[in-house]
Structure formats: structure tokens, C-alpha cells
Automatic annotation (TrEMBL), chain A:
The keyword Cell cycle does not apply. Its main location: membrane. It comes from the Bacteria. It comes from Agromyces humatus. InterPro entries: ABC/ECF_trnsptr_transmembrane (IPR003339), ECF_transporter_component (IPR051611). It is found in: Membrane. It holds the Pfam family CbiQ. This is Energy-coupling factor transporter transmembrane protein EcfT. The chain crosses the membrane at residues 12-32, 38-56, 68-89, 95-123. Keywords: Cell membrane, Membrane, Transmembrane, Transmembrane helix.
UniProtKB/TrEMBL annotation, chain B:
It comes from Agromyces humatus. The lineage of its organism: Bacteria, Bacillati, Actinomycetota, Actinomycetes, Micrococcales. Gene3D superfamilies: P-loop containing nucleotide triphosphate hydrolases. This is ABC transporter ATP-binding protein. Pfam families: ABC_tran (PF00005). Keywords: ATP-binding, Nucleotide-binding, Transport. PROSITE patterns: ABC_TRANSPORTER_1, ABC_TRANSPORTER_2. It comes from the Bacteria. Belongs to the ABC transporter superfamily. Signal peptide: none annotated. Residues 4-225 form the ABC transporter domain.
Amino acid sequence: MIGLYVPGRSLVHRAPAVVKLGMLAAAVVTITLLREPWQLAVAAAAIAALFAVARVPPRAAARQIVPVLWLLAVAVPVQAFFGGWTAAVMMGGRVAASVALAALFTLTTQVSAVLDACVTLLAPFRRWVDADRVGLVLALTIRCVPLTADIVREVLEARRARGAQGSIMALAVPVIVRSLQSADELGDALIARGFDD
Amino acid sequence: MSVIEFSGVTHAYGEREVLRGIDLVLTEHRIGIVGANGSGKSTLARMVNGLVKPDRGTVSVDGLDVARNGREVRRQVGFVFTNPDSQIVMPTVAEDVAFTLRRRGLSKADVAARVADALERFGLAAHADHPAHRLSGGQKQLLALAAVLVAEPSLVVADEPTTLLDARNARRISELLDALPQQVIVVTHQLELLEGFDRVVVIEAGEVVADGSPDTALGIYRSLIA
Ligand SMILES: Nc1ncnc2c1ncn2[C@@H]1O[C@H](COP(=O)(O)OP(=O)(O)OP(=O)(O)O)[C@@H](O)[C@H]1O
Ligand SMILES: [Mg+2]
């Protein structure tokens, strides 16, 4: 979701986020319950087909999925040692399939659509939670990732430009100060744009 | 044009008084505010939409007391900050513009049409689905302007909107502000931005020291900082 969205007009892109979220949940539960390797193979084929329908560029998909495969490259042999290869491969396959589906969701769904889905899903609870606010917090959290990354990069650059190496403190202090400043400014911008409660 | 009225406005941050007894009635189309660093310009500008409240005195827009009717006033006052990075709220360009229209009770189609329109106007249509934080500084400020103007405010307040931009982007933003049918208040250190403005107010140490046509007011300001 963090700027990962790949624009497109496919069926997968256009499906309502609530529906996709529901299907994602159902699919992940189903995958966890699969017992036979052939069932997992069918699931994998179906997921591959969905990626094809969505026309997600292979590079973008790989960037989401490959890191998990590295993890599994370690976890699966360990699991095999304790529980045998079949169980280990099933476990690895289930994790990989779930991650791939989640990646497909993030790659084809805009954050604002996810927010609207949140609002819809939380609607029955509106007496207790302000769905709009939950959505906003989610959006801001996502927004803070690149903002903080930028700050860290700038502070690192400034340090390098001054030839300073310094301790971790020398990095942490300006990053924290700048982050708080940004949060302050972002708060003002939110108020100015009509979110003042 | 709206009537923006400051009457007897004083503001202090802690012990430090940064605005003292400001009396101003602003009714012109294009108004510039200049003054040295720390003279109180940003504080003054932020009062117009209630981001800062006066300690004494009142600020009103079309008769509405900003301190009391902040939300109503902010619906007609758009604010452009110096640093576009801190005004981007949503991950992609189009989503960020659409964000301003949330809670306005518009239909999805209506929002989409207005957003497309605003992006077109500011030359950002090709970037609609791009991550907003990857835009250049100039494009980010264009996005900030688009996100403010999509709500069709009747007054736009801009606090040093071009300070972080190169000369070319600064000119672009300044031309866009100049072309607005809306009333604009621009705080700036780039005096050439104020050419053709209707009125310029010079602030010095929290007080209005000159006020009038750009020629007269900027003349006084130049001699002040010389
Ligand atoms: N949030 C704050 N807390 C404490 N002091 C502040 C705050 N904001 C501004 N000040 C102080 O108030 C004074 C006026 O600040 P203001 O930002 O209004 O000046 P300015 O005219 O906009 O300056 P510049 O040209 O540098 O932007 C400055 O001395 C500043 O240090
Ligand atoms: Mg300022």
C-alpha cells in the first residue's frame, strides 16, 4: 500500500475493496486448512492466474514475495528436521500463497479504497468507533513511512556532507526533532484541510 | 472579495509577544505580506484560518469570528504552506487531492471529476496514480495548490509558497496564484512575486509599519532593510 499500488483497469483492480478484503480473508483461512499437496498446487495455480488477470508486472510482484521466500528457505528445512518434508513444504507453501495473495491485494488496491472499505466494515460499530477517524489514522501511518525515510536520508546526507561520523545519538536526535516538526506541520495541514476535530 | 478584519490583535508565544495591536481591514483581491524573519508574518497568516488564535483582539472573515467559527471559516479559506511535504496526506497524487473533498458529501463520480479537473489544471494529470512523495519539489507545491483549490475556497492564504522552489517553479506557482479569481494573501521574501498586487503590508517586530500600494510599501520596506 505504501506507494506500491500499480495502476490498472483489470477485474482485480476494479473489484470493490471490501469484496477483495473479504475474499482475501476467506482465501487465507482456506489455505491454512488445506491438508493435501495437490490442493495447495491448485491454490497456487489459481493465485498465479489472478496475478495474470491483474497484469501485475513480475518485478513488482517479486519485490513483495521474494523476501518471504528467503525466510522460508531457512524455515522450511528447520521444520522438515522436526516434522518431515511433506509437512514442512505444506507449511512453506501455505505461507507463500497467503503472502502472494496479500501482495496482490496491496498491488491492486488504492489506499483510499482500503480506507473506504474500513469505513464500510466499521459502520455497524459506529456507536463505538469513528470509522472515518480510523481510516485517517491508517492513511497517516502509511504516509509517515516515506516521510520518515526522507528525513533519515536527509539527515544522513547532511552528516556525510559535514564529514561527521558520530554516534547513533548524532543521528537519532536530528531525526527525532525533524519527525516531531513534520508531525506538527502535518497536524496543521490536516486542520487547514478540514480535519479539525 | 471577503473582508478580513484584524482588530486589536495581540499574540505571544509564552512570554514573547510576537504581534502587537494589529488593526487591519483587508478587502483587496491580491494582498502581500512582507517583513524580516521572525517579524510575525506566519503568525498573522495562520490567524486568518484559525491555526493560531489571538490572545487579545479578534480576527474575522466576512464577519465570522475565526476563533469561534474556525471550521466554517476554514471551509472558505485555503492555506498553502511553505513545505509541500508536510501537507501531503495521502500516498498518491489523485488520492491526496481527493482527500480535501472527503466529508463534503459529494458523490464518488463528482469527486473523481473535480480531482481530474484540478490535476489537469495544474499539469499533474499524468501523475495521478504516482506516489506523491516521489514528485519533485515544484510538482509537490503544485499538488498542494491543486489540493487546496479543488475545494473552491473563496480566499487562499499562502505562507512563502515559493521559498523552497527553484526560480522556474517559483515563477510558475506565482503565475498560478496571480491568475486566480479568488482573493489571495501571500507571505513572501521574494518581492518580485508582489508585482501587480493591490496591497502590501509590511510587518516589523509584530507591528504594521507600512501599508499601501506595492510601490509605496515595498519602497519603505527596502529602505528599512537596507
Ligand atoms: N510555535 C511557536 N512557538 C514559539 N515561538 C514561535 C512559534 N512560532 C513562531 N515563534 C516565534 O514567533 C516569532 C514570529 O514568528 P513567525 O513565524 O510569525 O515569523 P515570520 O515573520 O513568519 O518569520 P519568517 O520570515 O522567518 O518565516 C519568531 O520569533 C518565532 O521564533
Ligand atoms: Mg514565516
